[in-house]
Predict the structure of Gas vesicle protein.
Amino acid sequence: MADDSNDGSPSGKPEKLTAVLAIRAATEQFSALIGRTPEAVSGIRAVPDGGWSVLVDVVELERIPATTSIIATYRVDVDAAGELCGCERLRRYTRGTTDM
């Protein structure tokens, strides 16, 4: 995240990476990495080192009808500075499926 907007706190210290900023950083960097636009963010949690783990859903294979498209959920980790530090695919499923 090459944006210097986090440096502008009155005390001169970088602002804490919020959940909203972490989602923005994770989705932008992940999208640039895999070349697909994220469909949704289905989860987020803080990690002890100040970073965040974000669950990002992506259409991997578009089909007709859309309910048969293949969706994948990735865990995308960003550090406290908002830099991508890891990602992995957790699952694949068809859009029409539901968890029970």
Observations:
- The mean pLDDT is 89.
- The CA atoms of residues 25 and 82 lie 6 Å apart.
- The longest strand covers residues 84-94.
- The radius of gyration is 15 Å.
